[in-house]
Amino acid sequence: MRRAKASAAYRIAFTYSTAFTLAILLLGIAIYIAADAQFRRQQDAALVDEATALAHEFNEGDLPEIRRAIARREGGNTINVYGYAMFDRNGHRVGGGLNARKPPAGLQDIVFVDPVEGADRARAYATDLTGGFRLVVARDSESMDGIDRTIVLIFGGAFVLVIGLSVIGALLLGGYLQRRLDGISGVARAIMAGDMAQRVPISQRRDEFDAVGSALNTMLDRIGQLMDNLRQVSSDVAHDLRTPLLRLRNQLEQVGRVEGAAERAIEQGDAVLALFAALLRIAEVEGGALARGFVVTDLTLLVTEIAESYAPAFADGGRTLCWSIAPGIKVLGDRELIAQALINLLDNALLHTPARTQVTVSLGGDAHAATVSVADTGPGVPPGDHARILNRFARGEASRTTPGNGLGLSLVAAVTAAHGGAVAVTDNAPGLRVTLRLPRVSAA
Which of 6, 243, 335, 434 has its CA 20 to 30 A from that of 443? Predict the structure, then answer.
């Protein structure tokens, strides 16, 4: 019970139940007032109709005639709910069995003497007749009070039933909400305890709780991937730094004894610094903070400038660089990051392809996305390694003897993901093709 009091789920359920019960109560009161008013209007209309009919008989006859009409109504075989009285101008009752004082004309509540119960209340209508007479038609209020009591009893019983159902419904709703929330909090506690494999259960209903659970599971999957990447990066950094640091140590030991050892030590130090700079750049891109500064970038102009600037370097190495660039293609992004991604692709083509290789840069796309691809006719990468080479420190077997730290394509993947795009590594037959697909913006 203490848990139910502290539970937001039960508070919400009982708040809704209380509001529903109050709404039913107000509705019942409104219905009671409206029904009572309608019954009383009908009663008043019936009293007026009865008095009007008797007055009509009086106008067509005389006092003895209306007395006989009243006597017929009071002594008829049918049940008559009305009482009648005739008063002269002095207030003396001259006809009818209704034992009451002469009331004023119109609709009103009166007091009369019941032969069995004594003084009692009645609803009456009094109308003046010719000759100074006043006709009174009345109906005992007990019948209307009985109707009111019946309505109250029926509504009271229904209201008690509503309260019971509301409490039961609140308990069921609170329990349901509590179970669904306990499932989420239980997974959170398990994950905090170190069980990263736990996930929020998803039902077949696909309701709002399932939507939240699915979003949390996606977030947990992403966190798991990042943690796996962190462990992998930590291992790869330790492995990849071991060799350059050992070389740096050896070069430092030879400083002063071997000519050029200091310069080579500086080169090794610069390589280590470049490795850390690349890791920091990837972390910065994957952090997402740069996305807030994205602007519309003319991809046609950017790719053209980079291709033209790299053409001499490819020619010097005995390779051919060609490009096919569609006009008017723009994306929302960071110009420097996109340029760095394309430069990394071209640097890879320079480093890992032999002479006489043809490298082609292509820019195209459709109404929704722009595609930038760099394809070469070099040795390529085995199909089983296409996805792996996008990871940090991943290098193909053919590139083990070339300079580099295996972070170039990892930065390309990070930049593309930061722009909401995707990277595809495919076989160029022969060679390798890397394609970046980026969301496109309108040329206007």
Answer: 434
Measured CA to CA, the distance from residue 63 to residue 291 in angstroms comes to 103
51-92 pLDDT, tens digit each: 988 888 776 667 787 888 888 888 765 556 789 999 998 889
Query: Does pTM surpass 0.70?
Result: no
**Could you tell me if residue 144 is inside a domain?**
no
Q: Which residues pair with 100 in a beta bridge?
A: 112
Name the nearest CA neighbour of 390 among 371, 416, 352.
Answer: 416
Measured from the Cβ of residue 397, the count of other Cβ atoms closer than 10 Å reads: 10
Cα–Cα distance, 125 to 46 (Å, whole number): 10
Do 102 and 87 touch, CB atoms closer than 8 A? yes
Tell me the helix, strand and coil percentages in the chain, rounded to 5. Answer: 60, 20, 25
Residue 44 lies in a domain: no
- Look at residues 270, 286, 302 and tell me which one is the last residue of a structural domain: 286
* Gyration radius from the chain CA atoms: 48
Give me the pLDDT at residue 431, please. Answer: 92
Distance between CA atoms of residues 16 and 8, nearest Å: 12
Question: 174 with 4: CB under 8 angstroms?
Answer: yes
User: Within 13 Å of residue 249, how many CA atoms lie on the same side as its CB?
Assistant: 6
Residue labelled with tokens 């077949």? 204
Query: Which of 55-64, 101-110, 236-245, 400-409 is the most confident on average?
Result: 101-110
Do 316 and 436 lie in one domain? The reply is yes
Q: CA angle, 396 as apex, 392 and 398 as ends, to 5°? A: 150
Assess if residue 370 is contained within a domain. yes
**What does the pLDDT look like over 262-292, one tens digit per residue?**
777 777 677 667 666 666 666 666 665 555 6
Q: Are residues 254 and 338 in the same domain?
A: no
**Which of the residue ranges 293-297, 306-310, 382-386, 389-393 has the most confident prediction, judged by mean pLDDT?**
306-310
- 423 beta partners: 436
Contact 320, 314 (CB under 8 A): yes
C-alpha 104/C-alpha 135 separation (Å) is 10
Secondary structure of 154-213 in HEC code, one letter for each residue? HHHHHHHHHHHHHHHHHHHHHHHHHHHHHHHHHHHHHHHCCCCCCCCCCCCCCCHHHHHH
pLDDT score recorded for residue 163: 87
The domain tally of the chain equals 2
Q: What's the rounded Cα separation, in Å, for the pair 82 and 139?
A: 5
> Which structural domain range is residue 300 located in?
290-441
